[in-house]
Amino acid sequence: MLTYIVRRLLAAVGLLLVVTLITFWIFYILPLWAGQTPQSLAAAYVGKQQDPLALRAVVDRFGFDKPLFAQYFDYVIGIVHGRTYSDGVSLIHCNAPCFGYSFKNYEQVWPTLLSRAPVTVSIALGAGVLWLVFGVLSGVISAVRKGSIADRVSMGIALAGVALPVYFVGPLLEALTGRWNTTYVPFLSNPFQWAQHLSIPWVALAFGYAALYARMTRAGMLDALNEDFVRTARAKGVRERKVLYRHALRSALTPIITIFGMDLGAVLGGAVLLEVTFSLPGLGLLAINSIQQDDFPVVMGVTLLAAFFIVVANIVVDVFYAVVDPRVRLA
Amino acid sequence: MTMTRESDGTFLPGADAAPAAPAIEGRSLGRIAWNRLKRDRLAMAGGVVVLLLVLAALLAGPLSALSGNDPDSLHNKLIDPNYQIPYGGMGGISARHWLGVDLPNGRDLFSRVLYGARVSLGIAGTSTLVALVIGVALGLVAGYFGGWVDAIISRIMDVFLAFPLLLFSIAIIGVLPDTAFGLSGSGLRFGVLVVVIGFFSWPYIGRIVRGQTIALREREFIAAARSLGARPGRIIVRELLPNLLAPILVYATLLIPANILFEAGLSFLGVGVKDPTPSWGAMINSAISTFQIDPEYLIVPGTAIFVTVLAFNLLGDGLRDAFDPKGSR
Hints:
heterodimer; A: mainly alpha; MetI-like fold; two-stranded antiparallel ribbon; 14 helices; 4 strands; B: mainly alpha; 12 helices; 65% helix; transport (chain A); transmembrane helix (chain A)
């Protein structure tokens, strides 16, 4: 078990390196391919009103004219160890983990990310619980009572739910419930208002996922109910309830939990569409606002953090798998 | 259902054959699937709606001319300057403007939704094509050759499937300057959207094709081709590919609505298609702030997305069931 976890952790470190490589490519190499010069790139990072001499200095200090692999090296070292920038007047130290320094707001990216994270975490946890519970529940009911009215109705809703984007469901829910106040209230300042104000965004985000999970659970349950081990369980006289929930559901649930881990990881990195729909100041809204202001270091920070969440989710899912299914450990 | 296999020609219906005896006819997979699909009312309804949508997108010009409108004319006089919403409530629906007008300048929503269909289906369709080319090619190669080739391609697909694609797309589109790769303006936008969406959605196709290729690889007809001395390239293109057309068709049909949502999402976020080019996602974005006082403006493009995605999903699900060899309908 321990060697398995160590192996997965090593793989995760590799994946993180790939992630930094991709974000580095997007923010430092792609613009060059698209015809930007180191000078115009520096201008994008520092602000557009720079005279050529100052830009020249920025290019030097940021190392935009260094070989790409050297730039990448600085970038990765910055993340794990911190780095020092100079804006020409004073030195700015960016502490580890250095996710960059925003020259638009004159602040380090990491504290900004930390200040936005609670909003996104609140959204993800509330919605995640909702969609897992409702999705799996209606999927199981549909599978057990296949062809019944309950099955048809919930699968009909699920079919519609998959086709309804969150930025359409959100306003519709607000109109239906007459609750338009979705400003974020920190959990610690007032837990009741926190939940009340987030309830509509939670339902809006959970709806589409629940629809997907209901369809997956139903298909998985129907497959499992056709398996030999279910027939064996029935043949040896196990009670039907136990067959359904201890045998069939357990095997149908494993892939669902995997996908849940990945989806939750993805939402933790910023529920972009939802946050923009409800103007919730989470990581996703931060990324969009920063893109509109050409504040690339912040966007890069959010992207990196989002990818980091997904890698962590990957590890958690892998470990979960190893606990549930002994075959994985031995393989 | 009863499966009828290709008869080898021994059954010759004579003139005196009993008329009641059902003729045994060979039925191809396509024919079987079509017969099943015809009986699936939901899938057929989805198919009809898809056809109508494609027609509407192609005929966006003449159709909006039918109502005497075009997507770009401003009708500022239709907007109540005091409340900043169309006169008369109902989002400005009238004999001239069948679906009302948008805000703040009163452009005709009927024509904008039609032209939006063209943008939406055009980008989703083209990017699905990009995804198909990459996904089918890499899936076939990974599945056929196996070994380290498969390991590398599969790992790449895993990485792609697990990433915050929306954020990555936002970043990519955001860092690109206004003029790049010899393109500018909306041409650049379209090109970038097609490439980004296609590039991020190929693993879905790739994974399916890889799995099916592995299943087919061990079949007799592939072994026969190999023993006749066919090269891998020929086996892949002439033997494997034709047998994979059904799953490719099914998953392409299911990928189109996913890509429609992808494009609409990016446009909603302001990093996709830009005004004045009509796009459903961008329309929702500009309608959302006035939803409380003018809900009609948001409901029109929202319903357009919903109906389109639902129709493609119904058709895709139906196709999948119809081509499913285990299916019994």
